[in-house]
């Protein structure tokens, strides 16, 4: 299959408009053929901006289009698995945003549907792609940090500003009604840990607080995660605070420390003997979205499994659900 793949997008919110659609539009191997959003005006505006021939508010209209090879699904995670399954049944490959579901049972139904239809699912753990995470993993595999390792990760996002940005406040509040930030941003963290530690989780202990009583769930979670190989992770995830710390991504071992600075776009290894730095000159996020799309296209064309696929999506979800369970038990 050498001709361009025809791809549609379901859900034209912020992540689609700022990341997925620009990546699709810039890719010479893709024809961006259709956009769908419940807000038809939003879909039409983006269709006009990117010269997309079809804009609709009915996703079924998009799925019934036999000329489409695949869809990118950018909807809330309580909606995503059902659209993913319908898309597979309609004969479309799927790149879906993370998390792929909000419970493991539903995610497993997606896996069953993928197997039954023969079409592929790639889960949008976008930020695992590219040389920075791959360099970190290679340093770990080469034993440059020694073992056991301590992973220190912090993600702080979604500023609390109900007056200045009420649309954002309402959207994130609705998201929190379906689970704490550990289910949502925690999906990326869980995937990072799967990708780097490559060891089963043996124990999870989590603590959470609501900084305002009206929040539907905790908005700051702290988790300690133990792995079978002896590694340990400390994970902080916070939403809906007016100001945030920078967050951290560090891996500490008996031989040294590795640092991933997502803002200045570099990874650095420091041991007693050396300091080694790999810096990304292009925009990290845009690069990750471009590489992710390239891997999705390659999987379709070569009929090989998507990575990360449904198994990785279920693994990440299982870890975030373990965090959620520990939070409930406090």
UniProtKB/TrEMBL annotation:
This is Gfo/Idh/MocA family oxidoreductase. Residues 5-125 form the Gfo/Idh/MocA-like oxidoreductase N-terminal domain. GO terms for molecular function: nucleotide binding. The lineage of its organism: Bacteria, Bacillati, Bacillota, Bacilli, Bacillales. Residues 134-257 form the GFO/IDH/MocA-like oxidoreductase domain. InterPro entries: Gfo/Idh/MocA-like_OxRdtase_N, Gfo/Idh/MocA_Oxidoreductases, GFO_IDH_MocA-like_dom, NAD(P)-bd_dom_sf. PANTHER family: BILIVERDIN REDUCTASE A. Pfam families: GFO_IDH_MocA, GFO_IDH_MocA_C3.
């Amino acid at each position: 299959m050498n001709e361009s793949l025809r791809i549609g997008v379901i859900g034209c919110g912020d992540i689609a408009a700022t990341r997925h659609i620009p990546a699709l539009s810039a890719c010479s191997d893709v024809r961006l053929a259709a956009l769908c959003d419940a807000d038809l005006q939003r879909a039409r505006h983006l269709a006009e901006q990117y010269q997309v021939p079809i804009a609709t508010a009915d996703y079924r209209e998009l799925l019934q289009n036999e000329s489409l090879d695949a869809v990118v699904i950018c909807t809330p995670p309580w909606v995503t698995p059902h659209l993913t399954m319908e898309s597979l049944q309609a004969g479309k490959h799927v790149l879906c945003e993370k998390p792929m579901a909000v419970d493991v049972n539903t995610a497993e139904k997606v896996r069953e549907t993928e197997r039954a239809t023969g079409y592929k699912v790639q889960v949008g753990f976008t930020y695992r792609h590219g040389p920075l995470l791959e360099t970190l993993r290679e340093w770990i595999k080469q034993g440059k940090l020694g073992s056991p390792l301590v992973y220190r990760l912090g993600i702080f996002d979604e500023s609390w500003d109900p007056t200045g940005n009420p649309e954002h406040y309402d959207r994130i509040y609705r998201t929190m009604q379906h689970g704490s930030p550990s289910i949502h941003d925690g999906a990326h963290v869980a995937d990072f840990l799967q990708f780097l530690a490559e060891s089963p989780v043996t124990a999870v202990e989590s603590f959470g607080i609501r900084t305002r009583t009206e929040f539907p769930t905790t908005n700051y979670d702290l988790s300690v995660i133990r792995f079978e190989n002896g590694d340990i992770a400390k994970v902080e995830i916070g939403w809906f605070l007016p100001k945030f710390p920078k967050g951290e991504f560090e891996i500490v071992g008996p031989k040294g420390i590795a640092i991933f600075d997502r803002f200045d776009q570099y990874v650095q290894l420091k041991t007693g003997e050396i300091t080694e730095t790999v810096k990304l000159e292009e925009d990290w996020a845009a690069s990750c979205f471009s590489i992710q799309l390239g891997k999705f296209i390659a999987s379709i064309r070569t009929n090989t499994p998507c990575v990360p696929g449904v198994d990785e999506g279920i693994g990440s979800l299982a870890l975030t659900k373990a965090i959620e369970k520990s939070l409930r038990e406090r």
